[in-house]
Amino acid sequence: MVFPYAADVPARAHVQSRSASQFHAVVKMTGRGDNPARCVDLVFIVKLRGVDDMRERALREFEAVFEQASIPVLDIDEVQIARVSLVLKGTAFASSVAKLGAYFQSNRNANVTVHWHGDAKPAAGPADQPGFDVLEQPFKSTAELVGQISIARSQLVILAEHEDIDRRFVNFDDLVVGVKPPVMVVRQEIDDVSRVFDRVLHSLSGNFRQTENFAYSFSLVRDKGLVHLLHVIDDNEVADVREVLEGQSALDDVEREALIERLTRVGERYLKAVVASRRERPFDVTYLLGVGDVLTAVRNELSRGDYGLLIVGRHEEGHSHVEAVDYQLMHEVSQVPVLAL
Amino acid sequence: MLANAMLAASEAVADVTGVKTWTFAAILGVTLLLLATEKIHKTVLVLLSAGVCLFLGDYWGFFPHVEGHHLPVYIQMIEWEVIGIVIGATVFVEIAARSGIFTWISVKILKLSKGDPFKLLILFAILTAVFSAFLDNITAMIIVGSLTVVACRKLDLDPKPFLISEGIMTNVGGLLTLISSIPNIIIGKTADISYVKFLIVASPYVVIATAATMIAAKVVFGEKVMPLKSAEDKERNLALVNAFDEWETVKDRAFFFQAIVAVVLVILGFALKAQIPILRDFGIEVVAMGAAVVMMLLHAKDVEHDLDNVEWSLVFFFIGLFTIIGVMEKAEVLSMIGSLLDWLTEEAGAVGLMWFTALFSSITDNIPLAAMLAKIFGATPERVAEVPREVWWAIVFGANLGGNITPIGSASTVVACTIMKQHKLPIRFLEFVKIGGVFAFVQLVLASGYLLILQQFIG
Questions:
Q1: Where are the domains of chain B?
Q2: B4 pLDDT band (50/70/90 cuts)?
Q3: Which three-class secondary structure state does DSSP give residue A122?
Q4: Is the ipTM beyond the 0.90 threshold?
């Protein structure tokens, strides 16, 4: 991971002695606390030196405490999913992909475009939905598919991925990286499509980059449904922040604990802001903030949460940018559809 | 040398002539005048004045040398119980405040207001009064005042009316318990008023005065504190206050809950001291110091910092002040003032004494006044028994409520003005007097009536 501003940050003193603003800067630049609304304003109570008036100092400290307690309400807009691309390849799950297409068509009034590979003619059943726009020209490579999706100006791509790697027509990773809209991958038959959007697990993987992420979760979940945000602070995240702060020296336990404590505060504040932003909406948002291994945490949560959809990844500068952890999740999880943002 | 020279003599010292008395009276007058002008730090001033008094008193032979082991006279003059309570309570409150109890409660109260300006005014005023009863007035004002500024910024309200009301309500809340303010501690100790007795007598007045102050606030501040009318505004403000998360102010939940238990136990300790065998034989300062020790045990990682937060300047101020008053007693300055006050009390009753105390407190520190009056009216146990009980309450009401007349009348109104100044909402001296004067007048009129009632029941 590259931190373009790393060189600007002095990397000498112990993390515990750093000022709030420096820590804030590092958290922002590593993508651990930034957001467009600038809602997360880390205000730590730092010992102010050179202030001789105890009362004025106490006033400032308490004001900072209450500012911190004031959780900003994020402005998260709904995402209009007006154009959906379905990639049908004649695999067993193509019918599930078609069902999802029909769901968006009927519930969101979306225009559905069907893309198909040259070696696998569109299955007559799934693609033959009334209102589906089946492209005449098949694609022969993932790059061609990316081009078709771009021309169709789709806002969501849905495809099935066969377990057998030889029977896959699309390189999923290239597609996710290549297209602008989010990509939903289906690896199991879906009986009841509406249940996919009843309970949504959104894995943040330590990234708070853009509120746009939540816009997708909030737009996709059904009324009376649940969006559960899962943010796990893992060693990578600690190391990322630490690297910028400290350079190459070894991380001791005290520093690690101090960093985790601060990252936890940043994360919790941000998650509370996201939860607060759904107040007037007809679904619930909950969150879980943990420390440990992201993959394990997501697996555990999926196994006990009866989720219909897992959302991973993030958007950066308009293009999908998948982190290592998201990549693993996209490939490891097969029981529920995975939406890579 | 001075210590040796100041060996105590409990017996009266003769040869205090009119000139000497008037000389010390002049020293006292100059000290009080300089205290009011605040040109010199009050601690330095009283220590300097105490030094002059001791040297002059020794030179004129007020403190004759006696044989044997005796405490130096100035040690005897200092009311160590008061100092014990101040130190104990300061450490206790400092650590308890760090647990987040008071900030947590403040945010909860903010949410209860639903962002409605009038509800906010009432609830914050009550909150300030309650906090002042258990914290020192300055801390109460700092906590509630800070939240007021933040909340008003979010709700797009003018914080001035809220801060003024809170500054004034700290002095009303400061009447509630024996340890709510230093004049209470001094008078309570001298007049031997228990914590429970103090609470029983003072609380009805605090409730009435709070209600009256809120009605007056609605009249004085008008549109700025009117309830919201449109559903849209109500919804907007509700969302804004609900966005506050009280748990964000709590750093350590275990310590938070421990502190709650400790606060409850300490309040019970103060209230039930007379009934608890182990505490019965000790002064209330033992409860305060015990509470401080317990809190330091709970928060053992930062004891040095906890002790740093004791207002040592206040402790030294007391040392100097009690010494001055002790010398004034021996120089018969207090008996001279006492004759005047006896005349005042005889002519105008306890109510007159209360108004006098209030006016005096409005221009200078109420602590020296309370300490001096306590010494005058409580010179001997016999004198304490002679003084009508309502006289003590007149001093308590006057010393506390007088602080509301001017912005410099009490530490909490000074803090309120400091907050306004910090946020570029400065208030002029006369502007405050016009507003605070109305509140103080209402409160003092009510207190006058209350004193007359007390006279009937406890006289």
A1: 83-308
A2: very low
A3: coil
A4: no
